[in-house]
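User: Second chain of the day. Same drill as before.
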Amino acid sequence: MFISFDCNKYYPVSMSSKYALRRMLILVIGISSLMVLSTACNNENTGTHTEVNFSAIQDILVLQIDWELDDYLGHLLTDEISNKDVITLKSIESGDFSEPNEFLAAFHIDTPHTGGLDRTIATIVDGATMEIKSQKTFAADNVNLHIIQGDNTHILFISDVTYTGMSTYFVELYELRDNQWTQKDVFNAPLLCCDQHFYSFSNNNNLHVFSLSYDGFMNPSFVYEYTYYWDYDSFTQRIP
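Assistant: Same format as last time:
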């Protein structure tokens, strides 16, 4: 699959390495792919965009996913059903986390509803070697990962799960240091407006909070409550 590549954009796209030969193959292919990506970035100044084969990047990274770190994939291994086709590259987003020249690659895991329809493995990848440095599973019916712009050490996780027609929304904040995912408080003070919330994150690092309720016909109702802005290591309520 080929798509136009813009170095400043976020791209949605349709087992750990244990042996030296496999690691060498990953490195060789990875360097070739990075040369293509570098060409695309260099063409940015001319206003042109190079066609990039993201399926090749997917093939490199999928081989490195550690199935044993994911409950669902680990179960498939015990059943001797290690089919790599259950893992597909979902998105790529650049960001310097523990070190410069890293990127966030998210993979969709094909699971039944009980495993989360949008079960996602988020990985931090070394852009120089195409080697996965860390991974974390996020299980929900809809998974959205956002890098805090201008910070690059925090990732916001917004998700929802639907049961008997009612959706529940969640928000979590993670700090990435030394290839470790550490969960932190999202807000610098508890939310007091209501029992259920809906969350929307904008590119200017603002997190908008809505109250959520359902009527007798299971129709949702959203009412805007607050906007929170990023304040170094958590979100602070913006005063109108």
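Helices lie at 20-42, 54-62, 71-78.

User: Great, on to the next one.
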